[in-house]
Specification:
heterodimer, A: mainly alpha, 16 helices, 0% strand, B: mainly beta, 4 helices, 5% helix, 61% strand, globular
Chain lengths: 313, 584
């Protein structure tokens, strides 16, 4: 009976991934020399509990495999048994892209691994065992999927704690919602163009619209940083600074602010000029307060001079 | 005012049960039930900790349920987490041998949006020291509103092995995203002078994603697959409307100017119009994939076509994409990985029919019938291509090095920037090294460099359509008698093509892992980047990031692991702003 207290829901997937035999047929095992698991267990404690692991459970359904399953991944154990030298046996955890990943893919033939050979993880030397605990049994403590990614991508972890962020730190989104860690296509991404990954959830921003905002079609990340930012709405900079990188500021924002909502024009208290203070005040104005449809719109704006393209509707 | 919530995690475990019944190696059940609760409270906590919380001063019951069951080759798992009434996670997975893998997932979260009270939009300009000039006012029609979105997602995936012969798989997936709640709808009317209004808008958006695919192994080393994708977005919420009053120029009241002068700049007035509308869109895609071995190497290709339609305006865009990936061994210790991507995108170009210019200022009568109509050429239209090649070489059992080179090109058809702004070219270089000493120490480092010529620019800001040059020249040419700069000419003069995208990009990364003892591990690293653009069409932008990190991993037993880490993120952005040169 295991002491299973946490069992983070999605973390279970990792174990399932290894456990699910639908990924392929067990390969013939021509590396095997028939050394029984019990021989390995003399030195390696793991061998004793291997039958409780997802791999062990799967192997147990075949009497031959059950007895000598260690060799299926580690190759012939004969030399290692005689010498005791770690160099005399295959260790997938030490192997790099020239070997270990493809050792696993001999069995895990699912099509979701079709692009692994070309994936960024593989070419960077990440192995299956870098993320998957091959010998973990069902009662072992699981690292959550997101935390595991953060183990290497620490800068992303830091970003997810920024004031504006996708709810990754809260556990409501996971890395796999956007990233295919095994390479290749991501689910529901219909084409490979810029922005398409974002549109798969934020479809209302795709258009095509009558009135476009060029950066939207170019790349969402011109304005946004998806993991987290200091500015609101995942913007790289706060408004209006972000907008003013490309656009000029209106005169409206550069006159002194006044109290209240509306005072008749003849009221002397309203009389101010564009001053340094007014400029400071202007920098507190957000462009999207009036240009609300910054991702594009089908509705023409009011002023003719913009060709209807001021994105205020 | 945005409200913040501080969640005091009093995760009181009332009951935690774990039961395992393992009668043999192929049948077992394990489940756990966690009952507890949490309490939320508001204060002015500086961080937006409440953005994804239910804003409610209350005590909430909470539970988690995990179940894992196996019978022979059938594996069943159920995971659920009820945090509060709007933050829920549930997932069911079923696999039966290698025949079926099915997954169902429900996720629910709440997103607090806050309300912008627009209080900064109150200003008045002086003219010659006297009351007058432009005025900016605002009005909040629903000041007490608490805007938030309840997002729910239902995801179903199936992978069915139709035939072991040929490894024929059928995959099907559907996802529905439902966003319900209220949001702030803002509008601005140039009545006298500018009047911003805020009102509540209902949100009820639905996004459906559907994916159907068939994959099969033609031979031992060749696989073909087809995938159909469909996406629909629609809004079922009532439209929001805003009034647009009669235009009046403030000088008409204070400085004896003409009302018509301001009126002449408006496309519509004295009416109520729909605002912030979201059109229904549909997207369909087809993709064929083929992978296999080529000599000693492996290759993978994909060809796709996608069409997106705006069903309210009948506008559509098309995309054809293709990829080729190739991996080839250059000897026992060397590998080449090459990738090529190409895409062609095109979108409809609608004709924009605008009112004629109604000149009100002196001399403007000659242009009373000036046409502003134009064809809006889409910025979507482009050809995009990218190619990279990486050679990875294992020097010895400890050292592996890699070198990557690449080229990217974006050729925009109708982008409103003349000459060199149309085509972006980028050269990519990267070197990397990995070091491993036994199982106890490993280290990796990488440096990447990108040199970009003519990166994306913002073409004329608001004046983004081709033809503006000729339009302005026409005015200037025929308006020689004018003694002033026309409003529209100012627009043309004000906006320039400008970019915030870097021309030079440097990225570095180093990380080391040291397993000091079987139970203690140490990880230390640093990564960051620096980019800049000092070209004339930029405002000398630059960005710098520096992120060191340190992690200590403790593993006292195979059932307990602890990680203590510290990550420091320093980010500096230099982005000078562009200020107005003209009044108007």
């Amino acid at each position: 009976m295991g002491c299973f207290l946490k069992g983070e829901g999605r973390a279970m997937r990792l174990v399932l991934l290894l456990a699910v035999p639908s990924f392929g047929l067990f390969f013939a095992g021509n590396l095997s020399a028939g050394v029984a698991n019990s021989a390995c267990a003399d030195c390696h404690e793991l061998s004793e509990t291997f039958h409780k692991t997802p791999h062990g459970v799967y192997f147990s359904q075949d009497a031959d495999l059950a007895e000598a399953s260690c060799e299926k991944c580690h190759g012939s154990a004969v030399d290692h048994l005689n010498s005791g030298d770690p160099k005399d046996i295959l260790n997938p955890a030490k192997m790099d892209q020239f070997g270990s990943s493809f050792l696993c893919l001999n069995c895990h033939k699912g099509h979701q691994f079709d692009e692994w050979a070309f994936s960024a993880h593989n070419t960077a030397g990440v192995k299956c065992a870098s993320c998957h605990t091959i010998h973990a049994d069902y009662t072992a403590e699981k690292t959550s999927e997101t935390e595991m990614c953060f183990g290497c991508h620490s800068e992303v972890r830091a970003s997810t704690f920024m004031p504006s962020h996708h709810p990754i730190a809260e556990g409501k989104l996971t890395c796999r919602d956007c990233h295919n860690v095994h390479g290749g296509e991501t689910m529901f991404v219909e084409d490979q163009t810029a922005g398409e990954l974002c549109y798969s959830c934020h479809a209302e921003k795709e258009g095509p619209f009558v009135y476009e905002h060029a950066p939207v079609q170019e790349d969402c990340m011109i304005c946004h940083s998806p993991h987290g930012t200091v500015a609101d709405n995942l913007l790289k900079q706060s408004e209006p600074a972000l907008c003013l990188n490309c656009h000029s500021m209106h005169f409206h924002a550069t006159v002194e602010g006044v109290e209240g909502t509306f005072i008749p024009p003849a009221e002397p208290d309203r009389v101010t000029e564009s001053t340094l203070g007014a400029w400071k005040s202007g920098m507190l104005t957000k462009c999207s307060q009036c240009h609300t449809a910054v991702h594009g719109s089908d509705l023409p704006s009011q002023t003719i001079s913009t060709g209807g393209n001021a994105l205020t509707r | 005012m945005k409200r913040y919530v501080l969640m005091i995690a009093v995760a009181l475990t009332l009951c935690a049960v774990s039961v395992g019944a393992q009668t043999d190696t192929t049948a077992f059940d394990r489940y756990s039930l966690w009952l507890g609760g949490h309490y939320t409270d508001f204060n002015d906590y500086a961080k937006k900790v409440g953005e994804y919380r239910l804003i409610d001063d209350n005590v909430f019951g909470e539970f988690r349920l995990d179940l894992l069951s196996r019978r022979g080759s059938t594996l069943f798992s159920l995971n659920g987490h009820f945090f509060d009434e709007k933050n829920i996670l549930g997932q069911v997975n079923v696999t039966t041998g290698n025949r079926l893998a099915a997954s169902f997932q429900y996720r629910s979260l709440v997103h607090q949006l806050g309300q912008d009270l627009l209080s900064n939009l109150a200003a008045r300009e002086a003219i010659n020291g006297a009351p007058g000039g432009k005025m900016l006012t605002h009005e909040i029609l629903d000041p007490g509103a608490d805007y938030n979105i309840h997002r729910q997602e239902v995801l179903s995936t199936f992978d069915v092995l139709l035939s072991e012969r040929g490894n024929v798989h059928m995959v099907a997936a559907h996802r529905m995203i439902l966003r319900e709640g209220t949001d702030q709808s803002r509008s601005v009317s140039h009545c006298f002078s500018c009047h911003a209004e805020s009102r509540t808008r209902q949100v009820q958006n639905t996004t459906h994603n559907l994916e159907l695919g068939l994959q099969a192994d033609l031979t031992e080393d060749k696989t073909i697959g087809y995938r159909f994708g469909y996406r629909q977005f629609k809004s079922d919420a009532p439209d929001a409307y805003a009034p647009y009053d009669d235009a009046k120029h403030p000088t008409a009241i204070t400085n004896a100017g003409t009302e018509a002068e301001f009126d002449s700049r408006q496309a519509y007035e004295d009416t109520t119009l729909r605002v912030n509308a979201l059109p229904q869109t549909e997207k369909m895609s087809h993709r064929v994939r083929f992978k296999g071995n080529l000599g000693k190497g492996r290759f993978s290709t994909a060809l796709g076509y996608a069409r997106t339609e705006n069903q309210e305006t009948d506008l559509s865009s098309d995309a054809v994409t293709g990829t080729i990936n190739y991996s080839h061994p250059l000897g026992d210790q060397t590998r080449l990985v090459a990738k090529v991507y190409a895409a062609r995108q095109e979108a409809d170009d609608p004709f924009i029919d605008l009112p004629t210019y109604r000149a009100g200022r002196p001399g403007g009568a000659a242009f009373a019938n000036l046409e502003f109509d134009y064809t809006r050429y889409s910025v979507i239209d482009r050809t995009h291509a990218r190619a990279t090649a990486e050679v990875i070489h294992r020097l010895n059992p400890r050292w592996t090095v890699s070198v990557l080179g690449g080229y990217e090109m974006i050729d925009r058809d109708d982008y409103p920037v003349a000459d060199d702004g149309l085509q972006t070219k980028r050269f990519i270089g990267q070197i990397g090294a990995r070091f491993r000493k036994g199982l106890n120490y490993s280290s990796r480092m990488k440096y990447r460099f990108e040199k970009t010529s003519d990166p994306f620019v913002s073409g004329r800001g608001l004046f983004e359509y081709p033809g503006v040059d000729s339009l302005a020249r026409d005015w200037n040419g025929t308006g020689a008698t004018f003694g002033f700069i026309f409003y529209h000419d100012r627009e043309d003069l004000r906006y320039q093509a400008i970019t915030t995208e870097p021309t030079d990009f440097h990225q570095f990364e180093w990380n080391s892992n040291w397993q000091a003892t079987p139970k203690v591990g140490l990880s230390i690293g640093v990564r960051g980047f620096y980019d800049k653009n000092s070209d004339l069409d930029s405002l000398d932008v630059s960005h710098f990031s520096f992120i060191p990190n340190l992690n200590v991993n403790l593993t006292p037993s195979d059932k307990l692991a602890a990680t203590v880490g510290y990550t420091y993120n320093h980010y500096k952005s230099r982005g000078p702003v562009s200020v107005a040169l003209f009044d108007g």
